[in-house]
Amino acid sequence: MRIQLAQRSEADELLGRSPLALLVGMLLDQQIPMEWAFTGPYTISQRLGHDLTAGEIASYDPEAFAALLAEKPAVHRYPKSMAARVQELAAYLVEHYDGQPEKLWADAADGKELLKRLMALPGYGKQKAQIFLALLGKQLEVQPPGWREAAGHYGEEGSSRSVADVVDADSLARVRAFKQEAKRAAK
Prior knowledge:
By secondary structure, the chain is mainly alpha-helical. It has helices at 9-17, 19-28, 34-48, 54-59, 62-70, 79-97, 103-106, 111-119, 126-139, 147-150, 169-186. α1 packs across α2. This is Putative HhH-GPD family protein.
């Protein structure tokens, strides 16, 4: 399955081949449109001149990295604070997974353990971790036993709740409609 979260072929191609880009896109996915968030890793890689590596991002001068994200068009509405979060995520991956994000899920015994690992990531609360777990299971075939249960409602088959369910423009529209309805119901 092809990742289509950015809805831009070159950005989606990077997300499909780079677990770090996918984790960074998910981290950026707050207070901005999903497509903008998941295009962020591609924008950063273009500005660096190559694919992202956790080691490089973690060791990048914080002010220079913030400036890189703030360059027009900005990677996020809050480029300085998100630059710090991206660097924290990269540093955590370097410290705990040798800079290789795929190690997060490669040997997870079950969905519960994988959820715990995702929740330990800087910038990942329970909801973001469950959504990312559902994304791994539904689109990347990372399916340790109990992954759907650990992902909660986001793991449900046939749902249209989150980025985990976006595979094309039509599914994106369904997810947006679901979120709008949920906001209306909450009021």
